[in-house]
Design goal:
The chain has helices spanning 14-26, 74-78, 82-93, 105-109, 126-131, 156-168, 183-188, and strands spanning 3-7, 30-35, 41-43, 49-51, 54-55, 66-69, 97-101, 118-119, 135-136, 141-144, 147-150. By secondary structure, the protein is an alpha/beta fold. Strand 10 and strand 11 (147-150) form a beta hairpin.
């Protein structure tokens, strides 16, 4: 199974962190919550607490097959932390898969990861995405190479299916073409 990072900071959109986290765990993947500080409890927009397993400065992008970036207002806080920026920039430069939803693409904007890529986001940051070189479209889920993007919590089923499908097809960095999910999972998507 693949090792997945989910980034966290205060004011994350609760569903956009918890829904993919639980689906990935259910599929047998190892999920690690990464924040600016290790062992810190971060609080979502709706009050759900989430403790980080490690600090971004303590891990490498190559430790993970995929990095999930939830939205809410947390990406605005994430991009103020050098460790979080370095992790996402390193993932982009080595083609490690990243999945960002809602305001999550702000982190991709801050790290030059969207240049020339077809993508989506919450409509309010569409201009930021375009100014960062992305080709913004209004679709529930867009996959362009190793970048998976969605617009909002309503898109979570399509977003998470795309993540699981990407992993099942063995596209994730370090998979050497072998599926990272059990065969039954690919058949159910």
């Amino acid at each position: 199974m693949a090792r997945i990072a989910i980034l966290v900071e205060n004011k994350y959109e609760d569903l956009e962190l918890q829904y993919p986290r639980l689906r990935l765990i259910e599929a047998g993947h190892v999920v690690q919550i990464i924040g600016p500080k290790a062992g810190e409890t971060y609080v979502g927009k709706w009050g759900y607490p989430q403790k980080s397993d490690a600090a971004a400065r303590e891990v490498k992008a190559s430790d993970f097959a995929l990095i999930v970036i939830p939205g809410g207002m947390s990406p605005d806080l994430m991009r103020r932390d050098d460790g979080m920026i370095r992790l996402v920039r390193d993932a982009a430069s080595t083609a490690i898969a990243m999945a960002a939803i809602c305001h999550g693409p702000w982190m991709l904007c801050s790290t030059n990861a969207l240049k020339g890529r077809r993508c989506t986001s919450f409509f309010a940051i569409a201009h930021d995405v375009v100014n960062a070189g992305g080709k913004w479209v209004d679709e529930e889920c867009v996959v362009d190479g190793p970048i998976i993007t969605s617009r909002c919590p309503d898109d979570l089923p399509a977003f998470t299916r795309a993540i699981l499908q990407y992993l099942a097809e063995g596209h994730a960095h370090g998979s050497k073409g072998k599926p990272l999910a059990p065969p039954w999972l690919a058949e159910t998507l």
